[in-house]
Structures are given as structure tokens and as C-alpha cells.
Amino acid sequence: MKLIEGREVAKALRKQTPSIAEALRARGVNPTLAVVVPTDDEGTAWYVRSIARAADRVGVNCRIEQLAQPDHDDLVAKLEALSADENVHGIICQTPLPENVKLADVAAHIAPSKDVDGANPMSLGRLAAGLETFAPATAEAVMVLFEAIGFNLDGKDITMVGRSTVVGTPAALLMLDHGATVTICHRQTVDLEAECRTADAVVVAAGAPGLITAKHLKPGAIVIDVGTTPTEDGQLVGDVDFESASEVAGAITPVPGGVGPVTTQLLLRNTVVAAQRQNPA
Amino acid sequence: MKLIEGREVAKALRKQTPSIAEALRARGVNPTLAVVVPTDDEGTAWYVRSIARAADRVGVNCRIEQLAQPDHDDLVAKLEALSADENVHGIICQTPLPENVKLADVAAHIAPSKDVDGANPMSLGRLAAGLETFAPATAEAVMVLFEAIGFNLDGKDITMVGRSTVVGTPAALLMLDHGATVTICHRQTVDLEAECRTADAVVVAAGAPGLITAKHLKPGAIVIDVGTTPTEDGQLVGDVDFESASEVAGAITPVPGGVGPVTTQLLLRNTVVAAQRQNPA
């Protein structure tokens, strides 16, 4: 069983960003990612600090916009102001959101050119239509990890567990676009084991620790674990029962150290790419 | 084997539209569907005439906008003008499009409120995100036909053959949203028989006559045939080998007389709904 080292993949991605950032600054453009934080949730705060640190290391300016108990209109106003601000090149909106607010609804107010985490429904629609767009960074990270281990999706059977707007659905669309036959499962799926056991790879983004075990896997299957559930002692656990699954799988991403670090680097790379497009030489 | 009579389902849908159209006209609003025709293809002309006849029967005004060899910019200009025209409530753009023009690219210029065939990537993205929107009428027709025969998708295994922006992808998203576990196949799928044979229902939109036979079906499976390939003698044939499949299937839509008439009625219903929303009482 091969461990898919997300941190190593992230390191390789991290090499490209600083020189682009540097070239932008030489032209007077300070590549800036705005992170809108509509919650005082501790897990979110931890993640936002980790983005800020990672941004700092690659020369991207991270502007944290903490909002105190915003409602729908406050969030829309903030996202529209950042979309109009020429000193901001990428915008992401953290979750959890206030009650009754849907991410896709407010994210429709992120300018598509700055939508570096593909949260605007227009970005998702362009992805579904095969047009150029920023994909949600987590979904893109899944593709980067497949590529890193030399797994070619063309003609492969992939089971995607989870149908969320931010991971499951866009990851399925990207895998389809790369030639995979994709089965999308979720909590209404009756026989998850059967749906997974025929797959060449299983991607799981269900937020259900231990959901995927050896019983779900064909020998040699690739397993990408997108789950990140916080434990009481402040750790993160994935959706895969690693010990059990590793007896059968061909390769697995660990949690932490799998999808997460790659996602962060893709957000930062997307930010410098967005800054380049907004400021052609 | 039950024949799924699309014409009967369409008749039922047709009952609701005239009274809405009538009520709109009583308020001075003439519900109007603009059909942009960028081709002189004979099959397209035939289909456009059939929409115009159906519109006439339910009291919807059909404005046909024939364009002679338009390029990308001509199409965008026309769609933007119709989007701005308050006497137009629904807009559809026929295919085939001029070479190198993508439907999703030009359809991004259809106002979402008038996008009665869900062709704007924003509509597809909103569909993927579970937000209210007009779905592509053909994809919606698949759902209406399932409902007409009392087939509840919750927990069912469905195989979708085809991943196009106008049918396969949106139909898969709608079926997922209704609780089905969905496998999406296409021309890179290695073993189509195996992917179909476990499914409770097979929806096929591949444009490949005779693709689906008895060998692809579990006994009793529901088959929805979205294919419409014109034959040399001016008929339409679907993607299902009807004679073979009908020995195994539980129910099948015929071609013609299955998905097509339902799609047309949904376009017209969407047009009067759009007109209502644009002209609140």
C-alpha cells in the first residue's frame, strides 16, 4: 500500500507560486487573497490562520475579513465590495454560514474573475459545461493527487461518495471530464459497499469518520479521503478507516496531510493566476 | 412491458398552460417565447415549426428569430437584445451552432430569468447547487416521465448514458437531487453493459441508435430514451433497440412520442411561468 503524500505534492505546487507573485510585485501588483470569515467558530479560525501562514510563505498577501454575526445582506455587501476592489485578486468565503444562508446564494456575488475557490454557481456551471473556470480547490486537489501518482482516469470506474456543491459534485464533474465513468453516492444510497467495491478508485467527502473500510474496496483500489472531522482533542480525522482500508487499497491519502495541503496551495496558485489575468503585462 | 406514453403526459401538462397564458393576456402581457435559429438545417427547421404549432395551441406567442450564418458576436448581440426586450419572456437558442461556437458560451448572454431551457451556465450551476432555476427542458422531461409512472427515485440505482451539458449532466444532477445513486457513462466507458445491467433505470442520451439492448438491462428496468437521430426517410430513432429491450424492460419510452412532446410542453410552461415572474400581479 502506497501512502499518497499530500504534503509532498503541495511542496511541488508551492515552488511555482512565489516567482509569479514576485513578478507581479515588480509591476506594482501585490497579489491579494481576501478571506471572508462570517463565524467565530474555532475550527474555522484555525484553518484561516493556516491559510494566512501558507500565503505568507509564497508571497501572497492574505486579507482576513472577520464579520461579526453577519446576515445575508451583510455578506453580499462585503463580497460585492471586495469584487469591486482592484487591490483584491482572489476571494473566498469561509463556512459555516449564518443560519438560512446558502453559500451558492451569497457566492453568486463574488466576481467570477476573483472566484478562486469556484463557489459562484456560474463557476460550477462553467465547470459542468466544460468551459474555463476556477474549480473548487478541494475538487481540483483530488485531480492533482490522482495525477501525482500517475493514475490516468480515462476509462476508469470511480465512485464518489458525497454530492456537495463544494466537493462531491464538482469533483465528479472533473473526473467525468477526464474520461472516468463516475458513480455518485450519498446518504440515500442503499448499498454503499456494492457501489464502492467495483471501483478502481473511491473518493470520499462525506464527513463521516470511518465510513469506508476494507469491505468497500476492490484490491488495489486508490482511495482519496476528503473528510476532515475535528476530534475532541483537536485533531482531524478522515472518512476512511485507514487501518482497515490500507490492508486492501493500492494507495490512500492520509488525513491530515493528504487533500488539505494541496487544496491550500491551489487556492494560492489560483490567486496569483487571477492577479495575472486581472493585470495583463 | 409498459409503454411510457409521452404524448399522454404532454397532454396533461398542456392543460395548465393556457389558463396562465390567458390570465397574463388579461393583464396586457402576451407571453412570448423567442426561438433563435442560427442554422438552416432542415431537422432544426422541422423542430422549430413543431414548437411554434405547440405554442399556438396553448396561447404562447412564438417569435422565431432566424439568423443567416451568424458568428459568435451576432448570436451574443441577438441574445442580449432579446434579454433586454420586455416583450420577450422566454429565450431558447437552437443548435447546431456555427463552428467553434459553444452553446454555454453564448447562452451566458441569456438573462437567467428568461432562460427557459436552462442553457446559461449560471442556470446549470444553480441546478448543481440545488438553487431554484429553470433546468434544461429535456432533463426536466426525464423527471416528469419518471413521476408519471410513479417511479420514486429515492435510493434507486440509475445509469445515465451521456454527459452532455444539455441532457446527461443536468439529468444526472436532477436525479441525484431526488435521492438516486447515479452512474454517468459515456463513450470512454469500458463496459457499458455492466454499468447498465445493475441499474433500476437507464436513461440514455447518446445519439447512438440501437446502443441499448436487452443485454444492457436488468429485468424490469425502466428505460428513458432521449435519443433522436434523424433517419434518411425523415423519421426519428432513439438510442434504444426497442424490440430487443422491450423483452426485458419494465417500461420504455417510445421514440418518437416519449421525451420529445414532454420537453416541448415544459418549454411552454416555463415560458408562462417566466412571464408571470417578470410581471407580478
From TrEMBL, chains A, B:
It catalyses: (6R)-5,10-methenyltetrahydrofolate + H2O = (6R)-10-formyltetrahydrofolate + H(+); (6R)-5,10-methylene-5,6,7,8-tetrahydrofolate + NADP(+) = (6R)-5,10-methenyltetrahydrofolate + NADPH. Residues 4-117 form the Tetrahydrofolate dehydrogenase/cyclohydrolase catalytic domain. It comes from the Bacteria. Residues 136-278 form the Tetrahydrofolate dehydrogenase/cyclohydrolase NAD(P)-binding domain. InterPro entries: Aminoacid_DH-like_N_sf, NAD(P)-bd_dom_sf, THF_DH/CycHdrlase, THF_DH/CycHdrlase_cat_dom, THF_DH/CycHdrlase_NAD-bd_dom. GO terms for biological process: L-histidine biosynthetic process; methionine biosynthetic process; purine nucleotide biosynthetic process; tetrahydrofolate interconversion. Keywords: Amino-acid biosynthesis, Histidine biosynthesis, Hydrolase, Methionine biosynthesis, Multifunctional enzyme, NADP, One-carbon metabolism, Oxidoreductase, Purine biosynthesis. Homodimer. Belongs to the tetrahydrofolate dehydrogenase/cyclohydrolase family. The keyword Flavoprotein does not apply. One of its GO terms (cellular component) is cytosol. This is Bifunctional protein FolD.
